[in-house]
Design brief:
The protein has 13 helices and 17 strands. It is α+β, with helices and mostly antiparallel strands and about 500 residues long. The structure holds heme C (HEC).
Amino acid sequence: MYERIPARDCRNVFMKTAGVITNGRVTFAAVVTVIGLLSMALEAGSLQAAANPAALSAAAGGASGTTIPLAESLGVHFVPGSSSQVLLERDGKTYLVDLAERTIQAKDSPTAAQVDTVAHLEPSHSTPQGADLGAKIFSEKCADCHGAGGKGGGSRKAPDFTSPAVQAALPDALVTKIIRDGKPGTAMPAWGGRLSEVEIDAVSAFVKSLGPAKNKNSEHGVPQAAESQTAKVYEPADDYLFSMPTGRRLDRHGLYLNFTHRFAYTPAFSGPGGGNMLLGLDDFAIASFGLRFGVTDKLSVGAYRSPSIIGRPIEFMVAYNLLDEHDHQPVNFAVRASVDGQDNFSKNFTSNLEFIMSRSVTRHAQFYVAPTVSFQNRELIQKPGPLPTTPPNLPGFNTFSLGIGGAVDIRPTVALVAEVFPTLANGPEMGIHRPAFAFGIQKRVRHHAFTLGFSTSPGTIVSQRAGTRATLLGNSSADTPSGLFIGFDLMRQIY
Ligand code: HEC
């Protein structure tokens, strides 16, 4: 079936295709081929409406004046019911080009079968009256983020409406409510007011109809239990609970900023902190910041710096996510290796190895364990003397700490977080007599997280986070609960 493409859309197609290049998801050669073919097909299609059919027939390699043979002779097939997908035949292979998602997938099955498969994403068991309207609204208003077939994915992380698990977690009333009110803290906008109630009902029905029919499930032997697991995966709002890493995956090519403040000098709830010092917030803060970058969706790198008062360390890190609940694995598992050196990476070097495991309990909570080995770790002390001078040489100890933490959503975008870092090997040598601990409240906004917490741990890099106020301030009772101080974390995903 041929769909006429107005000239304005041609420009869109070009811009979106150009986006494919910058996204770098396909090889340059493939992009050039695709652009070439698409531009020929589209230009030919719109030119034809304008004038000169004879020239066009020539361009189409002697095909008759109709556009279907033209598209076919170019190896281009429009996907029925989709305004963003095109099938492209090239050197005996078929590629599914999704302009909205900016992806190109190689398909080895024959074209006709492909068109068929994609066409199956069209509703097959929806109510006839609402279905047309629903499908139309979906392709106009939703497909940009959710994909023409509702399969989601892409950079916006929209859910896959064709998955039985996603559908199982979305009763009809909830679908309607989400469409009307949106999902705060995510990219999902509210449509109430922009769509009429009739339109919302129609598009809800369409979304529900995208789910596979019950019997399809057993045919493909998809175990329902394993599938429904993805619907129960918790999404940590930040790379940290407070100082404890969540080990969450970063987006491929995503850039993240982490900015932390620890007001370690004034306890929040005892002494002068509570009253005129705003829980210690108007005292001196230890402010650290770092950047993290997703090289792939599993491999990430990062650099992080803490200020002079705490030894001026710079930490470099490589992290790899080996297991992920989103991939139907029973736990999330990430390994991180890091090395830090004080005085801007020039002395007192410590190397760390962390194994971060986490598991979701429903999609509203997640629990974390992070065994951490630090080689040649240094006692946490406040740098003596004026700030620009070099921190002192300190003896190194190999330490082992066991981070344990949890996050529980109390509202859709608000979680309570808590963590504790007992040091199980060489704690006394490091002056750590009580485990560092923290708890707080974490708010997610799209691509941001803000965590306000209370802690006894002034350090935020891997080697320092198990240390407590007692050694920093040279006061052995400074890390008791009455010594809890306030702090906050800001995370921003820049790209
Ligand atoms: C700007 C991008 C965008 C647009 C436009 C958009 N959505 Fe969404 N939608 C999302 C994202 C992202 C999510 C996932 C939110 C999350 O993280 O839970 C979502 C979630 C949903 C959900 C809930 C799924 C779940 O598993 O909780 C429904 C239902 C939904 N969208 C329907 C629609 C409909 C219908 C339209 C069009 C009228 C639409 N969306 C338009 C981005 C979008």
